[in-house]
Specification:
15% strand, 10-stranded mixed β-sheet, 506 residues, 14 helices, binds calcium ion, 4-stranded antiparallel β-sheet, alpha/beta, Alkaline Phosphatase, subunit A
Length: 506
């Protein structure tokens, strides 16, 4: 059943009419942050909404549509970005892990550029191969730096075709979130071609680890006790031991959350987890505050320049993030906090509860640009949902797959329906099943519960059906990435060999 709330729709009419009345193609500003969990945006509610509000991001929800059920098909940075670039699952676009996008395939920016859009990109890119399809770009090499942020500018590429091997120009004294915004505003003011519609991708590095916020936020939340999630002290009882294998644990084996020598010296305990959680969340939310302030700056510019009337603004993240739930930080795992992404689109409408995916983004943006949706893309345009049209045949479930890479998080695949989640840890042959209605925190594994045996069988069938429908082969474990770049292929082979040697040592 579709659940549309239309209570405040009349307030939005002027903007809606302006957008719908346009016979020409609207501009598209696609803003994406790295690792920004939806439950760290106050428009999404939750325990952090009051202590760390995000009024500027909330504007997008108020003035447009907030997707309450948007998810990724692989909760990890580079692969999710590749899905957004191609509209195809990892096993089709070739980016299973952190390997790099083969730019010879059709991509969203290429389509937009060929369609007459002026295309631009600024910020965190992380697809490794030099971008194709942009009239202008300015990119952080690799993960990039939070402070004194350097960029590889278009024209400074290395002949290797690998972005991080290009010439990087530093910006002393700048924080990445501020300089990325500054460069975007410069593009709008000095590079934008007023005779063409634009497609501009503005990608923040924050709030990715190691959560180095701008110094002006040093005192933000300093005296606030950050509310804890219900599952902070979850130790995975009753579920697959897969969770124990991961080193994403807060204050445990994780090297990213040993913030100070004092913390590092403490033996692991629940009390240590509690202490580290507070420190982690303050750093993370200070990074989020920087994004919120900067998005406000961009929205203000669109308003004062008059561009807002014909610019669709999208805000999203490349995946969700654990903010202490299950005692974790980071992403990867199909559990809700990692799987779920924010998605807000300044367009008519209010809140939508259908299942939206990162896989749908290129189809949606091309549709908004009045470009036919390529038939080989695997998602679906969200435009009917944005127009609040009824879509009775909308998906009720989707397929997810994570391939083993860092943090010893085991590979797994599964499906999420509207009400249940089925997870299969393929290298361990272990199942988890959750009833998301009675157990939204995913702590009661029903896979061995006899009362759920017929539901389990039904969901296993659905998993196989969806796996086949997207053309995935469960035996394809992602160890043959297709980057289209000889240097990246070699680097990946060396990385795999190092991992095999390390495994042999253990
Ligand atoms: Ca990410």
């Amino acid at each position: 059943m579709k659940l549309f709330c239309t209570a405040i729709a009349p307030l939005l009419l002027p903007l809606n009419i302006a957008l719908f009345a346009q016979s020409e193609r609207p501009n598209i500003l696609f803003i994406m942050s790295d690792d920004h969990a939806s439950h760290a945006i106050s428009a999404y509610g939750g325990r952090l909404a009051e202590v760390a509000p995000t009024p500027n991001l909330d504007r997008l929800a108020k003035e447009g549509m907030r997707f309450a059920n948007a998810f990724v098909t692989n909760s990890i940075c580079t692969p999710s970005r590749a899905v957004i670039w191609t509209g195809k699952y990892s096993h089709i676009n070739g980016v299973y892990k952190f390997t790099g996008l083969d730019q010879s395939q059709p991509t969203l920016p290429k389509y937009m550029q060929a369609h007459g859009y002026q295309t631009g990109f600024v910020g965190k890119y992380h697809l490794h191969t030099n971008p194709v399809g942009f009239d202008h770009w300015s990119i952080l090499p690799g993960q990039g730096k939070y402070h004194d942020t350097a960029f590889v500018e278009m024209g400074d590429e290395n002949p290797s075709g690998v972005v991080r091997q290009g010439k990087a120009t530093p910006n002393p004294g700048w924080h990445s979130t501020d300089i990325i915004t500054e460069k975007a505003l410069d593009w709008f003011q000095n590079i934008r071609d007023p005779d063409k519609p634009f497609f501009y991708m503005l990608h923040y590095k924050a709030p990715h680890d190691l959560w180095q916020h701008a110094h002006r936020y040093d005192d933000y939340l300093a005296d606030v006790d950050i509310p804890e999630p219900a599952t902070l002290f979850d130790h995975g009882s009753g579920r697959s031991p897969a969770l124990d294998q991961s080193t994403q644990e807060i204050g445990g084996r994780s090297h990213h959350t040993q913030f100070t020598p004092e913390i590092k010296a403490m033996p692991y305990s629940d009390e240590k987890r509690r202490l580290v959680y507070q420190e982690y969340m303050k750093r993370y939310l200070r990074c989020v505050k920087g994004i919120d302030d900067n998005v406000g700056k961009v929205l203000d510019y669109l308003d004062t320049s008059g561009l807002a009337a014909n610019t669709v603004v999208v805000y999203t993240a490349d995946q969700g993030f654990f903010l202490g739930e299950h005692g974790l930080y980071d992403k990867r795992i199909i559990y809700e906090e990692s799987l779920r992404i924010p998605l807000m689109v300044r367009w008519p409408g209010t809140v939508n509860f259908d299942i939206a995916l990162n896989l749908d983004y290129p189809e949606t943006l091309l549709d908004i640009a009045r470009h036919p949706v390529p038939e080989d893309m695997q998602g679906r345009s969200l435009v009917p949902l944005l127009k609040s049209e009824r879509a009775e045949d909308w998906r009720n479930a989707f397929y997810y797959r994570y391939y083993y890479s860092h943090f010893d998080t085991p590979s797994h695949y599964g499906i999420r329906t509207r009400n249940e989640k089925l997870i299969y840890y393929d290298t361990r042959d272990e199942w988890e099943l959750y009833d998301l209605r009675s157990d939204p925190n995913e702590v009661v594994n029903l896979a061995a519960n006899p009362e759920w045996s017929s539901k389990l069988a039904e969901l296993k069938q659905e998993l196989t059906r969806l796996q086949r429908a997207v053309g995935d082969d469960p035996t394809d474990i992602g160890d043959q990435p297709r980057t289209g770049n000889a240097i990246l292929d070699q680097l990946e082979r060396e990385r795999l060999e190092r991992r095999i040697r390390a495994a042999d040592r253990n």
